[in-house]
Design a protein that fits this description.
The complex is a heterodimer of chains A (about 325) and B (about 350). Chain A is mainly α. Chain A has 13 helices and 5 strands. In chain A, the strands form 2 sheets. A 3-stranded antiparallel β-sheet of chain A has the order 3-4-5, with no helix packed on it. A two-stranded antiparallel ribbon of chain A has the order 1-2. Chain B is built from 9 helices and 20 strands. In chain B, α3 packs parallel to α5 (about 140-150). The mean pLDDT of chain B is about 90. The chains are: A mainly alpha (about 325), B alpha+beta (about 350).
Chain lengths: ~325, ~350
C-alpha cells in the first residue's frame, strides 16, 4: 500500500525529467491501482479496524464525547444478555429453514429445468426473476401481498373476510396470536427469492455431468434412485456446497428483507441479529461501541461456519 | 455368453444417415471388431446394441430372439467407454462392485467380494482397490473400466475404442491383455476401433464400416489379402498399399506416368482403365529384377525399412527387412509379387 502511494507521488516528478514519455510499466500499473486502493482503504480497511477499536470502547456516534476504553465489557454484556441469545436463536432458525428449503427446492427445480422441453429456456429465465429484484422492493411488495385486508395472497387462498383471515406478518390468525407465523412468512419470501440462486448453481453442476456416466449406470442396471444418490448428488455436491455456503452467509446477516417486511416484529418475533444490530447502532439507541462488538461477534460466527464449509468442500473436491 | 445379430439396422440423425442397412452377426465367443474411420457409425452400432440409441429400422437379435423391446439394463450387456466412465467419487472397489450391487441382480456380499478379488487379480489392479478413481492414471482407469465390465458375466462385451486414450506403449500392453482375457474366458466381444493394427491383431473377424455402410466382413487375413475395395485396401496395412492407375493394352498393364508394365495377371476380362494395388511387402528389391527405379527416400524403422522407389512420376513403397545400406539416389531393380496383385475398378470396387 505504502509503496504504491509513494510511486503515485513520485511519478509527476519523474514526468519533469527529459525521458518524460518513458513512464515505466511499474508506474503506470501503480497509477491504475492507486485510486481503487485508496478507496478500499478509506471505505473498507479503515472502518474495519476502527470498528474493532470501537467495539472495546463506550462510544456513541452522536455524542460529542471521545470513545472510552472499556475492554471486553461490550462483549460480555452481549453474550450474557438472554435477549441477545434469543435473537441469535431466531437467526439460527431463520438460516436453517431458508437454506434447507432453498437447497431442496432449488435442487428439484434444477432437475426439472435440466430436461429440454418446449419453452424450457423461457421458464428458466422466469424462475430467475425473483433473484434479480432488489430485496427492499421484494420485502415491500410481499408486505402488501401479505396484507390481511387487501392482500393478494389471502384472496388467492380464499380468505375474503379479514376477521377470520391470517395476518401473516402480525403472527395472528382470525385475531388469535399464532407465534412464529411471521417468521415463517419471512422465511417463505426469502425462499421464494433465493431458491433460483441455488437452482442456477445446481443446474450448472447437473449440466456438467457427462452423459456416459448415466449410460454406464443404465447398462450396469442401476436404479434411478441409485443413479441419483451415487452419480448426481456426488457430482453436484461441490457446487451445491458453494450455494449452501453463500446462502448461509447471506441468511446469517440477512437484514433488508426482514426490515422491509416486519422491522423485527411483531414484538421481537422476527428480530434477527442484523436487524437488532441496526437497531442498536442507529435506531434511537446509537450505541456504537456495543453495536461494533455485536458486528464482530456475527463476523466471527460467519467466518467459523464458512471455514467449516470450505474445509468440507475441499475434502469433496479431493475426492 | 450369447450370439448377437443385427439385421438391416438403419439409424438417422437429423441430417446424416449414421447407419444404413447394417447387418452382421457375432458368434458366441467370437472377438468381433468394427473398423472404420471417424464418423463411420461404429459407435452408433455399439450404442444400438446396448439400447442407448434406438434404431429407426431393422432389428437386434440376442441368441436369435429379438431384443428390440429391451431397455439397456435388460439387455445384459457390459460396455467399456472410451472416456473410462468410472464413477468419480467412489473407490476402485466400489466401482467394480457397482454392477453387482444393483437391486435388480441381488448378488450376495461374499460372492461380490470373491468376484472382485478374481477380476482385480486378472487385471493386476489389486493394489488399487482402495483408491479413489480420480487418482488413477489413464491405463489404470481403463483397466478398472474393463474390470467393471467383466466382473459380471454379460451376454456380450461392447468396447468403444477402449485403448485410444492411452499412450502407445500402454495401448500395446493392454491390447495383449484384452486379447488374452477374451481368449481364456471365451467372451463374446464387440470392439470398435479406428486403428487397423488393433483390428488385425485382436479380431477373429472384422467388419469394415464406412459412412454407415458395411463394406466388408471377414477374417483379418481376408480383409488384408482380399480387400473388397480401395477403401478397405488403404484402411488396413502400414505402410499403405501402393495404388497406381494403369492402362490395359495388348496383354499388358501399363502403369501411368512411368515405364513400368507387367503382364496381365488374370484371365478375367478387364476394363481398359483400372487401379493396381500392390502391398509394399510385395515389392521386392532384388538384383536382376524385371523393373528398374531410383531410390527417392528411405525410412529405417529398425525391424524393417520403408524404401520409396521412383519410376517416372510414380513412387512405389517397398518394405525391406532390417536396416538397409541402400542410399537415396541409388538405382535399383525390383520385382512385383505377381500372385498378390490387387486389381480395382476406377471407382474402387475389387475386380479379382
Amino acid at each position: 500500500m505504502t509503496s504504491s502511494a509513494q510511486a503515485n507521488v513520485s511519478s509527476p516528478v519523474r514526468a519533469e525529467k527529459p525521458q518524460r514519455k518513458q513512464m515505466s510499466d511499474m508506474t503506470i500499473r501503480n497509477l491504475f491501482i492507486a485510486p481503487t486502493l485508496l478507496l478500499l482503504i478509506a471505505m473498507n480497511v479503515f472502518p474495519l479496524f476502527y470498528s474493532l477499536y470501537l467495539s472495546f470502547t463506550n462510544y456513541s456516534a452522536i455524542a460529542r464525547k471521545a470513545p472510552v476504553w472499556v475492554g471486553i465489557e461490550n462483549y460480555v454484556n452481549i453474550l450474557t444478555d438472554p435477549q441477545m441469545w434469543q435473537y441469535f436463536n431466531t437467526t439460527g432458525k431463520y438460516t436453517l429453514l431458508t437454506v434447507s428449503l432453498q437447497v431442496v427446492l432449488g435442487f428439484a427445480l434444477a432437475m426439472l429445468v435440466k430436461e429440454k422441453f418446449a419453452g424450457s429456456g423461457i421458464v428458466t429465465t422466469l424462475i430467475l426473476i425473483p433473484m434479480m429484484l432488489s430485496p427492499v422492493v421484494v420485502g415491500l411488495f410481499w408486505k402488501y401481498m401479505y396484507n390481511p385486508s387487501w392482500g393478494y395472497l389471502n384472496w388467492l387462498m380464499g380468505f375474503t373476510n379479514p376477521s377470520v383471515a391470517p395476518d401473516w406478518l402480525a403472527s395472528s390468525w382470525a385475531r388469535k396470536s399464532v407465534p412464529g407465523l411471521a417468521l415463517f412468512a419471512v422465511v417463505f419470501v426469502d425462499v421464494w427469492m433465493w431458491t433460483p440462486f441455488v437452482m442456477l448453481l445446481v443446474l450448472s453442476g447437473l449440466k456438467a455431468i457427462p452423459d456416459y456416466l448415466y449410460e454406464a449406470a443404465a447398462i450396469d442396471r442401476a436404479s434411478s434412485w441409485f443413479q441419483f444418490w451415487r452419480i448426481t448428488v456426488p457430482q453436484v455436491a461441490p457446487l451445491l456446497m458453494i450455494a449452501i455456503l453463500f446462502r448461509t452467509i447471506e441468511a446469517l446477516k440477512s437484514f433488508d428483507l426482514v426490515m422491509g417486511m416486519t422491522g423485527g416484529g411483531p414484538g421481537d418475533q422476527t428480530e434477527v441479529i442484523a436487524v437488532n444490530l441496526y437497531r442498536k447502532a442507529f435506531l434511537g439507541q446509537w450505541q456504537t461501541g456495543e453495536a461494533s462488538a455485536l458486528a464482530y461477534i456475527v463476523l466471527i460466527i460467519i467466518i467459523a461456519i464458512s471455514n467449516l464449509y470450505v474445509r468440507y468442500l475441499n475434502r469433496l473436491r479431493e475426492g | 455368453m450369447s450370439s448377437v445379430e443385427l439385421r438391416n439396422v438403419s439409424k438417422r440423425f437429423s441430417m446424416v444417415d449414421a447407419l444404413s442397412d447394417v447387418s452382421f452377426s457375432i458368434k458366441d465367443g467370437e472377438f468381433f471388431v468394427l473398423l472404420g474411420p471417424t464418423g463411420a457409425g461404429k459407435t452408433t452400432t455399439l450404442r444400438v446394441i446396448a439400447a442407448l440409441e434406438k434404431q429407426d429400422a431393422g432389428s437386434v437379435y440376442f441368441d436369435g430372439e429379438s431384443a428390440d423391446h429391451l431397455q439397456p439394463a435388460e439387455r445384459d450387456v457390459a460396455m467399456v467407454f472410451q472416456q473410462y466412465s468410472l464413477y468419480p467419487t467412489m473407490t476402485v472397489w466400489d466401482n467394480l462392485a457397482f454392477p453387482l450391487r444393483s437391486p435388480m441382480r441381488n448378488v450376495p456380499q461374499a460372492e461380490i467380494e470373491k468376484r472382485i478379488a478374481d477380476v482385480a487379480e486378472k487385471l493386476r489392479i489389486t493394489h488399487l482397490l482402495d483408491r479413489k478413481t480420480a487418482r488413477l492414471s489413464g491405463g489404470e482407469m481403463q483397466r478398472v473400466a474393463i474390470g467393471r465390465a467383466i466382473v459380471r458375466q454379460p451376454r456380450i462385451f461392447l468396447m468403444d475404442e477402449p485403448l485410444s486414450n492411452l499412450d502407445a506403449k500402454l495401448r500395446e500392453a493392454l491390447r495383449v491383455e484384452l486379447q488374452h482375457l477374451q481368449k481364456t474366458q471365451g467372451d463374446t466381444t464387440l470392439l470398435v476401433t479406428h486403428d487397423q493394427i488393433e483390428a488385425l491383431t485382436m479380431a477373429d473377424r472384422i467388419a469394415v464400416l464406412d459412412r454407415g455402410r458395411i463394406i466388408q466382413i471377414g477374417t483379418p487375413a481376408e480383409i488384408y489379402d482380399k480387400p473388397a475395395s480401395t477403401f478397405v485396401a488403404t484402411l488396413v496395412g502400414t505402410p499403405r498399399i501402393n495404388l497406381l492407375p494403369v492402362r490395359r493394352q495388348d496383354g499388358s498393364l501399363f502403369i501411368e506416368n512411368s515405364e513400368l508394365h507387367i503382364p496381365v495377371p488374370t484371365t478375367v476380362p478387364l476394363p481398359e482403365q483400372l487401379l493396381l494395388g500392390i502391398r509394399p511387402e510385395d515389392v521386392r528389391i532384388a538384383a536382376g529384377g524385371p523393373h528398374a527405379g531410383q531410390i527417392s527416400l528411405t525410412e529405417p524403422l529398425g525391424v524393417e525399412t520403408i524404401v520409396h522407389i521412383q519410376s517416372g512420376r510414380q513412387t512405389l513403397l517397398s518394405l525391406m527387412s532390417g536396416i538397409t545400406n541402400i542410399k537415396v539416389g541409388d538405382g535399383v531393380t525390383f520385382s512385383l509379387f505377381q500372385e498378390r496383385l490387387h486389381l480395382f475398378e476406377t471407382d474402387g470396387r475389387r475386380i479379382v
